[in-house]
Write a structure and sequence with these properties.
The chain is of the alpha+beta class. The chain has 4 helices and 7 strands. The strands form 2 sheets. Strands 1-3-2-5-6 form a 5-stranded mixed sheet.
């Protein structure tokens, strides 16, 4: 059991050393690649587009002494900062650790980036060829600040400012609407208050008019009754005087 464990450890160590040597020999520096580098807005989205761009570049026709012409191939990868997309001709390399592919200007070579795409919507393989970078579009989307997980577009530099402007527009719109509603309610309340005061004054005036009319009628009636009483008394006095005159 102990011997088997030691053999397993030795095998693992040999595999690690072999992978390290393979990685070092796989990536080749080529100064001729620098003269082919071009900044682009987008990289090929599929194998058909990749082959079309490779045919247009015709990397095999470029004079270089790094590798055989058939191994000087078209690439579209990130720069080392992950802020630009680059088209160029370079010797292909194996990309390890589910990382994006990039071009190192100092080393003049294609290598794996520090940017991982293992959690992307289409994750990178543990090991893949740099000439198959088009299969992992999430690496290209990083340049445009798109969420690498592929759930939602999150374009920080462009859409964030646009969203802020939209929010501000909505705030201004809502504020104007609120002010308009508040002014309308105030005007309606003021009109209602003025109407209520007007109706109350009219009612009071009507009441006072009615009361005044009633008092006037009472006064007239009292005056009429008083005059009637005096007339009756006067007539009675006249009648008495007439009777006295007759019986004399």
């Amino acid at each position: 059991m102990v011997l088997n464990g030691r053999i397993t450890n030795i095998q693992s160590f040999v595999v690690i050393i072999f992978a390290f040597i393979l990685k070092k020999t796989d990536t080749r520096s080529c100064p001729a690649s620098l003269s082919t580098v071009v900044d682009v807005e987008r990289c090929p989205r599929n194998e058909l587009e990749w082959k079309a761009r490779a045919k247009l570049y015709n990397c095999r026709s470029i004079n270089q002494s790094c590798v055989d012409p058939e191994y000087f191939e078209y690439h579209c990868v990130l720069n080392t900062n992950g802020t630009r997309l680059l088209e160029l001709c370079a010797p292909p390399a194996n990309i390890y650790a589910s990382s994006c592919a990039e071009f190192n200007f100092y080393g003049n070579l294609i290598q794996e980036s520090s940017i991982s795409c293992s959690d992307a919507f289409v994750p990178c393989q543990n090991v893949y060829r740099s000439t198959e970078a088009y299969k992992y579009q999430s690496c290209y989307d990083i340049v445009h600040h798109v969420d690498i997980k592929g759930d939602q577009f999150n374009q920080h530099s462009t859409n964030l400012s646009g969203s802020t402007d939209n929010v501000e527009d909505k705030v201004h719109l809502n504020l104007g609407l609120i002010l308009a509603i508040a002014f309308g309610c105030f005007a309606l309340g003021a009109c209602s208050a003025m109407m209520l005061i007007f109706l109350r004054n009219m009612r009071r005036h009507s009441t006072e008019t009615i009361e005044t009319s009633a008092e006037y009628m009472d006064d007239q009636l009292t005056t009429y009754r008083t005059k009637s009483i005096w007339n009756s008394l006067w007539q009675l006095l006249l009648d008495v005087l007439c009777l006295v005159h007759v019986f004399r």
